[in-house]
Write a structure and sequence with these properties.
Layout lengths: L1 H4 L5 H17 L1 E6 L6 E2 L3 E3 L5 E5 L7 H13 L7 E6 L3 H7 L5 E7 L7 E2 L12 E6 L9 H11 E8 L20 H8 L12 H8 L2 E5 L7 H7 L6 E5 L2
Parallel strand pairs: 5-6, 5-8, 6-7, 8-9
Antiparallel strand pairs: 1-2, 3-4, 9-11, 10-11
Length: about 250
């Protein structure tokens, strides 16, 4: 299951998961947990994690994680993004969002990734094939921690975003660290997994993450939305504390 959820998954695993998910959804059906993204309900969510397993993290029928469900609730409840007519670019599209967003008739929705079979455009995020000021909304979640030259990637995202546009760029942040840590001399996968949380991560972001967005020109905001959600819903939706980083091109 870890491989299926890798940010750059193997194509055959995605195709296999698409075929299996309806059967898995039936097997785990129940009323204890709900995925707010599609409204499906389950008797249990599955544990998930690389270093440490988190209880009730992975929705077995949609493969959504806590961060996906939290972001969906924020966008649905606190914004009108889902209802607006927008040019949207989705970098490394998550399967659970891809299915929903493709159905939004008011969105001109494009997906982009260097490998994913869900991508309309195959491209390196550091050299995107789009014109300046092309998109109203860019979704780029849990991608930047994989990119060696993340400053170049952020600069590209800023370039192609329209003035007044929004970037949503979730990344894993270690809030005990003030400064982001990276060391490209660490090449052993086991060591990288231990230090960076995953073998394919190249850094651990600290609380200075927003400074990288600011340097590219973004005006940033940290959304701590879980504080607006009741304890009952936190349990029902299988959520955990996380922030939603947003960058505005002003």
């Amino acid at each position: 299951m870890k491989l299926i959820l890798n940010i750059f998954p193997r194509p055959w695993l995605i195709r296999l998961s698409i075929w299996l998910l309806p059967l898995i959804k039936i097997y785990y059906s129940g009323r204890r947990f709900i995925d707010p993204i599609d409204g499906s309900s389950y008797r249990k969510f599955l544990p998930y994690g690389y270093q440490k397993l988190r209880k009730n993290a992975l929705c077995p029928g949609t493969l959504s994680l806590e961060r996906h469900r939290l972001l969906w609730l924020y966008l649905e409840r606190e914004t009108n993004i889902f209802k607006k007519k927008l040019n949207v670019l989705h970098i490394a599209p998550e399967q659970v969002f891809f299915k929903k967003f493709k159905k939004f008739e008011n969105w001109n929705y494009t997906t982009c990734d260097i490998n994913s079979p869900l991508a309309d455009i195959k491209s390196d995020i550091c050299n995107l094939p789009f014109k300046n000021n092309s998109y109203d909304l860019i979704l780029c979640n849990h991608v930047l921690e994989h990119i060696p030259d993340h400053n170049k990637a952020i600069s590209e995202l800023y370039r192609i975003l329209k003035k007044g546009g929004i970037l949503i760029a979730q990344v894993p942040i270690d809030f005990s660290k003030e400064k982001t840590f990276e060391d490209f001399n660490i090449t052993n996968n086991k060591e990288r997994n231990k230090i960076f949380g995953q073998y394919d991560h190249v850094r651990v972001y600290g609380t200075d993450f927003f400074s990288f967005l600011n340097q590219a020109g973004f005006k940033t905001k940290s959304i701590d939305y879980i504080n607006k959600i009741s304890k009952e819903e936190i349990q029902k939706f299988g959520l955990k504390k996380d922030i939603i980083p947003i960058g505005y091109k002003v």
